[in-house]
Write a structure and sequence with these properties.
By secondary structure, the protein is mainly α. It has 19 helices and 4 strands.
Amino acid sequence: MQPDFLATSLHIVAPELIMALGTMVLLMIGVFMGEKSAQTVTGLAVALLIITGLWLTLVAPDGAAFGGSIVLEPFARFMKVLVLIGSAVALVMSVGFTERERFDRFEFPVLVLLSTLGMMLMVSSGDLLTLYMGLELQSLAIYVLCSINRDSVRSTEAGVKYFVLGALSSGMLLYGASLIYGFTGQIDFKAISLVLTGEPGLGLIIGMVFLLAGLAFKISAVPFHMWTPDVYEGAPTPVTAFLAAAPKIAAMTLLLRFTIQAFGPLHDEWRQVIIFISLASMIFGSFAAIGQHNIKRLMAYSSIGHMGFALVGLSAGSVAGVRGVILYMTIYMAMTLGTFAVILSMRRRDGMVEEINDLAGLSKTNPVMALFLTFLMFSLAGVPPLAGFFAKYFVFMAAVEAGYYTLAVIGVLASAVGLYYYLRVVKVMWFDEPAGEFVPAAMELRVVVGAAALFIFPVYLLVGGPISAAAEAAARTLF
């Protein structure tokens, strides 16, 4: 390996190296300082995520490292920044909760950092091996995070369920990758694309479907959604917030890169799979959430539906469609983190509560929190002029431009059905008799809720232009 080649590659992967080395240092700090180091390690972990984000934004150059195994371009840069923001906010929100629930161990932020490192590799993966390596690094850390509260049966059950089903999906993904390599002789995404000429063989199509199934599991799309409600409900709430934000962005990014870059010539084949998953997720997520009473399970089914909406943009297979997906995931992360900050604030003197009916009369006991949560619910439902409306508008318009009118119409109808269960939360807050006051929320939770509410309305109307332009530039680099 030439020195110049190695130096260039190391410069490109510097953000990942910073994250990896910093995580090892924090692990050593935790080991030598003991359990009392949890708060210190968490603070340093957030600082490490910020430093990595600044290096990624200001210093790291575009290019391909190690023969194209890892790539960095505007698309990867944009999505990595989203992943880092999601991880940092989830860590900040976890501080008070972990201390109250008595599992404030230094391993928690270390595992979040390791998972984030895996996500960064996923976002920048240029071949099948890096794809699998990043996916497994991300997943293995999350399996432990879900069951990190060893005193909770629900947490342990959530970790076991996610591990068993995650292992199944990883096997499917790896089998699909092996078939793709066997029928193309390539693992590099761009090289695979160049090989795909003429009519594809059945084995190659099967490999593509298996790999798409493995990625669909990671974004909890139907029919690979079965883990989502139980894991969302059983895992500690900060872990659920983390799981609902950053990993979804990384997996969706990987899905975009794989379909557009590796299997671009076979767009008619993978579009059929994506359209089916999109339709099933939108419809199932919208109807299954109606009967939910636990707000974390409600957010789980909401997440399934939103992944279906995002996939509408990918179905178009165009620059406009990918841009729509990028914007959708950006807005979805803000809405989700803000909502989970409210869920973490649902605490009475005798402990945490998670039932939707526990929000009864919140407008009278905490009108500011009720107002912000109302904004978030309306945005998740896609009510104009909130940011959630624009998110759905971009992906639906991309589908219409590509000629998928039926898909767009079904998406609008599914969104109208979803409006019901979001309005039910609003109705409980504003019209039901108060069920009791919550303990005042921690400052960090109030900041997250306020920032999320401001982002979706009205700040998004001001910053949406630059964000949309950056998403446009990011989308074009995939083509």
